[in-house]
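Continuing the batch. This is chain 6 of the set; chains 1 through 5 are on the previous pages. Same settings as before, nothing changed between runs. Recording input and output for traceability.
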Amino acid sequence: MNSTAQHLERWPRGGWIAVLLAILLAGCAGPGARRGPDYRQDGPPRTAVDIDAIPDAVPRAESLCQPCLRPYEVEGVVFRPLSNAAGYQARGIASWYGREFHGRPTANGERYDMFAMTAAHPTLPIPSYARVTNPANGRNVVVRINDRGPFKRGRLIDLSYVAAAKLGLVGHGSGPVEVRGVLPGESSAPAVITATAAAGQEPAPLGAVYLQVGAFGEAAAAQRLASRLRGEALAPVSVQPASSDTRWLHRVRVGPLPQALVEQTMARLGALGLPALRLP
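Output for chain 6:
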């Protein structure tokens, strides 16, 4: 019997197993252990990348991540993911995440790649696709949703580094965008959005009317109502974020509507228990 075996024999039964476990755990906690991501340390890659050489995501039919469709709660807010991206449209603030999260698991188990055209969204299906437009400069990209977030009040979508760079948002850290769901086989033509639309002042056709159906502090609640309205075949429906000195509001609107449909639409909303405010 060698000296190591003799040494282990002198330990009480099971004692040497505890020692081995302690050694392994100490190794895991050592300098080589990978800490959790810290958004305060996040930033762009440390080497240059040709963002123009990276193409947009191409929408294709994919099996949905079923666990990702379950309602979930973050800091007291319950999010209820959508079953599909059809008709989804919202305006809000986009942020981005980079090297601090690069290589870490996303919500569906894929690895986050800051050089891929992907994004995180609180409620869009995983995976699904969306066109994101920066109204300040007219740039737009198509991204694949494969993660959850952002969960900061007033934020609508969290873009990969390269998607944010293509939109011109990296230097600012965040900025207003419009997000529209894109289905496989749909036209890839982007919507035309003006700079004034980013402030929630999209020009309506002459004589058209908007109806405000609700206003929420939480974007998820506004999206749930918008989804319900679309399910009732009311259209067009949009969520318009607006900020005050103290908080964000997410206004759910139906319109623009021609004058001939205003009273009829208000009656339908009333029958659903959703009184609407006619906007000037």
